[in-house]
Amino acid sequence: MATVQYTTYNFNTPPLISDSDFKILKDILTENPNYSINPSSSFIETFKVELIFLGIGLIGFYIASLDLADWLNWVGGIPAFLAFGSLFSFVPSMFSYLGYISDKSNYYRKLKKKIIKSENYNEFLNMRNK
């Protein structure tokens, strides 16, 4: 039986912020509540190779669909076939990455909310422990 190998992405909760980091973030968020503390993640950068491969496959499919010559059908069909096969690993990896992004966003959204609500670091720690 064939197995599909794909990359899984899991969000690992970072260590608790320090008192000095809390004060810095508290000052920043007091001045600008819309400031994002969530580190950026790029879907395109993460899946750059896969997206290029799929693009080449789509171009190959288009070339093969023109049906101009037998050899041209092979030249376009082979990359299209390989790109289609790669979807079986790309799609599960993509969904795993979207889950990672969701977990990461939820963590930083809750962290930001607790920093804004708390008056000092001790109150922040009490909120975190609840």
Structural class: mainly alpha
- Count of discrete alpha- or pi-helical segments spanning 4 or more residues: 5
Q: State the end-to-end CA separation.
A: 47 Å
Query: Could you say which overall geometry the principal axes of the C-alpha atoms support?
Result: elongated
Strand count, sense and barrel status of the largest sheet are: none
The tally of strands reads 0
User: Mean pLDDT score, rounded?
Assistant: 89
Poorly predicted runs of 5 or more residues: none
Computed over alpha carbons, the radius of gyration is 23 Å
The arrangement of helices and strands along the chain is: HHHHH
The protein's oligomeric status is single chain
Instruction: Tell me the strand percentage band.
Output: under 5%
Helix content: over 70%
Keywords: Membrane, Transmembrane, Transmembrane helix
Transmembrane segments: 51-72, 78-100
